[in-house]
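Review this fold:
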Amino acid sequence: MVNKLKIVMMAIWMPWCLTMAAKDYAVTDFGAVADGTTLNTRTIQHAIDYIHRQGGGRLVFAPGKYLTGTIYLKSNVTLHLEGGATLLGSTNPWDYDKNPIVNWMSMIFAVRQHHVGITGKGTIDGQGFKTANNMVDYINRGLFEDPLKLGRPYEGNRPMNVYFRECEHVTIKDITLRDPASWNQTYDQCKDLCVDGITVDSKSYWNNDGIDIVDCDGVVLRNANIDAAEDVFCFQSHSADHFCQNVVVENCVGRSSANGLKFGTVSRGGFRNFKISNITIFDTYRSAITFAAVDGALIENIEVDGVRSINTGNVIFLRIGDRWSNGKQPTMRHIAIKNVYAEIPATKPDAGYNYEGPIEDLPRNISPASIVGLPDHKIQDVTLQNIEIVSPGGGNPHYAFRGTTAKELDSIPEMRKAYPEFSQFKELPAWGLYLRHAEGITLDNVRFRAVRPDYRPALVADDVPGICLKGVSYEEPAAKGKKQVVLYKSTEKK
């Protein structure tokens, strides 16, 4: 069971999103021009530097369009964008810095600063589609070195909208962020981060993550509405010596051509002490909830309470792998997922996106929710409580077949080194939930419903000692008398 005391204490001390009273400075007083064509990079940077030297304050952008390349926030300075104000990213890639500390490009950087933020009802617009395509042109002309994998530049060679690294006391509030050329916003090794009330439209180019929180300590993310062409709420751990920890996520909505709530894929250090509540994920290609420990990470003390997953390719995917572990033991334990309602479609849920997720290898029947460890690294102590999963069913043995004999179950590949996705195993033997290499698994008041008949059982547990099934039900048309639970190398705890 999740350490509830830790979660309660975390919520008590977690900082609130407060905007401190500070002197306001109009950016136009420094000579900025809001015509959408005048490049204001030097002017805005001069204003930030001046306010910083004065002890701090807000740099205020009145309605209008302020074209800029890379700017650097300094301690005690907040960018405040009034409603109707747009900070407009230049479409010339040469107007952006590639910061040597993070090795990425961004419109707005803050590196090793404190008490910084971006607030207001205005917009940060990266114009990323035009910028990325201009970069492709430069690469093809030999003016910029890049492998151009799959016809697009490397993510770090395209500007994000926002990148904060090793900052303390960060407030991001009410703004709209749209059209980055790469990930939208990254907060990396920050402490006391509050992101509240943001709107994100991030689906104009590849790798358009909604928000990436990397190895941060003390985070509140709430009231966010994010539409992304990659993962929506993405928590990562890039350093083996750091954790993404002490995090509250609440009252958020996400849509994605990849995953909704995701831990990983980069997972070197770990993730611990999360309280996540009241999340809606819809029209999302991959999983509503993905926890991936594939690079040696520790994932522990995670509570997810209240998820509505509609038209989502998969609802729950928990995975231990051994991709880049380098001898470090991956661990996933003390996870509680409760109060979840999910509807899985029979068709592609992200149809119509500018950049849809890739067509999966076929033949393949619809994949179940899954919790899959490794023989030598089991997933431990997971509770699924008050869950309803509506599957399309329709699994056809003549289309693709995976049976439940010992030989057939043993033939499912371990895929230790694979990129973690719910569909990585191609064909799985259950329509509702597949468990493998796990212990201390509890299903409490879990309802599996199939819309159409399926040749597979609802639940298969392989190498899962002591599974506890309390109030679990299975509904499938024309399945009277069908065995819905297969336990292989597993025991049920009564």
About this structure: The helical segments are 4-13, 41-53, 128-140, 406-410. The longest strand covers residues 270-293. The chain has a mean pLDDT of 94.
